[in-house]
């Protein structure tokens, strides 16, 4: 796929809710939603709002979330509160909620907003109403079907990809967070319609998955790509692998839409990370992906030195907009956080780069070998390569049993000195956050990671999970009607533009909810434990039970919701998309009309904030209702 010229302006839609910064994981917890507000405030003060449409996302509904997640898990997230936790002990264990993923005030709403932005962005892309959609509140890539993990509860990325699959035959997921994008990989492990590409630190590090040899299974074999990295990777090394690998992936997979997870914990100086990227190195990935000129959803993810997260995502918003912004930071609500230099860009440290050129080249060529296994020429594709791939499960061509996931039962050290961990450091020396939450300096916080032996429900549960996920994919890709009660599965967003009252820039970011509590979650102690989710699964045995997301049956009972969903094949006219899957011609998507009907669709009303050069409105309300 040829790179497009990098000069054409694209339309950008940006999703942000002024409440997001008020959610609080608890004292000492490294995940701070406040970073999203800091980023928003910074990019407003750079004037970037003038060049994009800003939307307040709808709150994703339970129905939207259960297109991937299990009903009982979402019901649990909806019910649990800090004041009723004791009634949910068993479920908290089962759903891995409590330590890394604490119960906090407004937890479910937080998930709704984060997810709402990503789904709305996907809908916008599907409607070809934007070229790039941005949701920095999303990117929560560790969440599983029925389990919270790594500070993530609801996997907005999986849900957004499911939305994109309604219109796009092939969706590429790219993950540059320092952690493996395990939740997304797992969800699409057995399908060839989504390729997951993750660059991450591997070896003694959370979540423990993402081995080079994890390549997908069944039909999805070779559609999961993992680039394991070592500590200290710098801009040059990252570029040396990212660009050629992504070029090859684009050439071989030819996606018609891209989701880019821009986790900022891969930056130098991250509180939990151990890479050594500058904003420029991180941003180069965004720039590179952007040049392919495909409909792209950009989401956030990790990032725990929050001033750098705000810097990074502001800078990457400017890259999406193709607008240069000054290194001198504009005055903003959080100005003191950026001292002592008050510059946009950060300097990498002098840490050792443990990724030698030889190591990187070796991994790169191994990945290229796998990518070459993908069906490529149209003629080959016509010869039922997909069916062959299914049979390959027992093939001996790969003597190393690449479908076997390697579980690392080792711990993520997450040890840092007090300075690096103190909230006050992250927050510019303050002991009180902008919204008045009192923070105490923490001391002696050794982070450790729990060994996960007891969590090894292992292969069977993962297998089930993967299988059911494919069912979900099928339903999402082929929705015609919802369950008869009007709770449709399809989403159709209506955007309502609203005139802006004259307001100051600051007001847009100071939208705050007084209902957000400042209470700390009791169980969030000074010691944060990270659990490795062990995925010691063998190849999921999906060949018999899997519902092909493309050739879905005409009627399927969705076991998770007990509601019957009528389905048609992705393209009811023929299997053409399947056959054309690897067609050399880039398939710029024209949405198949047969997929756009959703009479029972949940209609989401977004509100646009149109910004003029002189005024920015406060964020106005959004509404969500069930249509028809
Ligand atoms: Zn991360």
Automatic annotation (TrEMBL):
Tagged with keyword NAD: no
Broad enzyme group: hydrolase
Low complexity bias spans: 457-469, 506-546, 595-606
Protein EC: 3.5.1.98
Gene Ontology MF term list: DNA-binding transcription factor binding; histone deacetylase activity; histone deacetylase activity, hydrolytic mechanism
Composition bias type Polar residues, residue spans: 557-574
GO biological process: heterochromatin formation
Protein's recorded name: histone deacetylase
Organism: Helobdella robusta (Californian leech)
């Amino acid at each position: 796929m040829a790179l497009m010229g990098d000069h054409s302006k694209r339309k950008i839609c940006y999703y942000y809710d002024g409440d997001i910064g008020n959610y609080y994981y608890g004292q000492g917890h490294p995940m701070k939603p406040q970073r999203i507000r800091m980023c928003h405030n910074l990019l407003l003060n750079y004037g970037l709002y003038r060049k994009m449409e800003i939307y307040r996302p709808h709150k994703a509904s339970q129905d939207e979330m259960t297109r991937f997640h299990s009903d009982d898990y979402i019901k649990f997230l909806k019910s649990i509160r800090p004041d009723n936790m004791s009634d949910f002990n068993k479920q908290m264990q089962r759903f891995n909620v409590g330590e890394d993923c604490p119960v906090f005030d407004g937890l479910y709403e937080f998930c709704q907003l984060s997810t709402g932005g990503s789904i709305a962005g996907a809908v916008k892309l599907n409607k070809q109403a934007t070229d790039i959609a941005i949701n920095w509140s999303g990117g929560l890539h560790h969440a599983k079907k029925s389990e919270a993990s790594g500070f993530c509860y609801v996997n907005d990325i999986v849900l957004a990809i499911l939305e994109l699959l309604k219109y796009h035959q092939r969706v590429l997921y790219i993950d540059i967070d320092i952690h493996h994008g395990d939740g997304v990989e797992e969800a699409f492990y057995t399908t060839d319609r989504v390729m997951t590409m993750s660059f991450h630190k591997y070896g003694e590090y959370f979540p423990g998955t993402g081995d080079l040899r994890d390549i997908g299974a069944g039909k999805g074999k070779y559609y999961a790509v993992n680039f394991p990295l070592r500590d200290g990777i710098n801009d040059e090394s990252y570029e040396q692998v990212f660009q050629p690998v992504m070029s090859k992936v684009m050439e071989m997979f030819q996606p018609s839409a891209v989701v880019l997870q821009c986790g900022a914990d891969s930056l130098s100086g991250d509180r939990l990370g151990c890479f050594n990227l500058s904003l420029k190195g991180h941003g180069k990935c965004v720039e590179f992906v952007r040049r392919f000129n495909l409909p792209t959803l950009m989401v956030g993810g990790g990032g725990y030195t929050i001033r750098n997260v705000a810097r990074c995502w502001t800078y990457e918003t400017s890259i999406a907009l193709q607008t240069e912004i000054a290194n001198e930071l504009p005055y903003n609500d959080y100005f003191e956080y950026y001292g002592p230099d008050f510059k946009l860009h950060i300097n990498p440290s002098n840490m050792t780069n443990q990724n030698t050129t030889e190591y990187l080249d070796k991994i790169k060529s191994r990945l290229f070998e796998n990518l070459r296994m993908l069906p490529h020429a149209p003629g080959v594709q016509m010869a039922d390569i997909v069916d062959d791939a299914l049979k390959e499960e027992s093939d001996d061509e790969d003597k190393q049993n690449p479908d076997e996931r390697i579980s690392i039962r080792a711990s993520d050290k997450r040890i840092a000195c007090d300075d690096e961990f103190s909230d006050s450091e992250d927050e510019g020396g303050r002991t009180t956050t902008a919204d008045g939450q009192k923070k105490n300096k923490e001391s002696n916080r050794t982070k450790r990671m729990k060994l996960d032996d007891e969590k090894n429900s292992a292969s069977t549960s993962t297998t089930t999970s993967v299988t059911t996920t494919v069912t979900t994919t099928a339903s999402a890709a082929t929705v015609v009607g919802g369950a008869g009660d009007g709770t449709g599965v399809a989403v159709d967003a209506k955007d309502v533009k609203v005139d802006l009252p004259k307001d100051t820039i600051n007001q847009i970011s100071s939208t705050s909810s007084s209902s957000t509590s400042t209470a700390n979650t009791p169980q969030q102690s000074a010691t944060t434990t990270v659990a490795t989710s062990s995925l010691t699964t063998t190849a999921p045995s999906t060949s018999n039970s899997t519902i092909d997301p493309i050739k879905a049956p005409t009627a399927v009972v969705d076991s998770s919701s007990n509601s019957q969903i009528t389905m048609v094949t992705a393209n009811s006219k023929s299997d053409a998309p399947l056959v054309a899957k690897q067609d050399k011609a880039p398939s710029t998507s024209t949405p198949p009309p047969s997929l756009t009907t959703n009479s029972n669709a949940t209609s989401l009303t977004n509100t646009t904030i149109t910004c003029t050069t002189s005024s920015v409105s406060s964020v106005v309300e959004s509404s969500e209702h069930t249509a028809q």
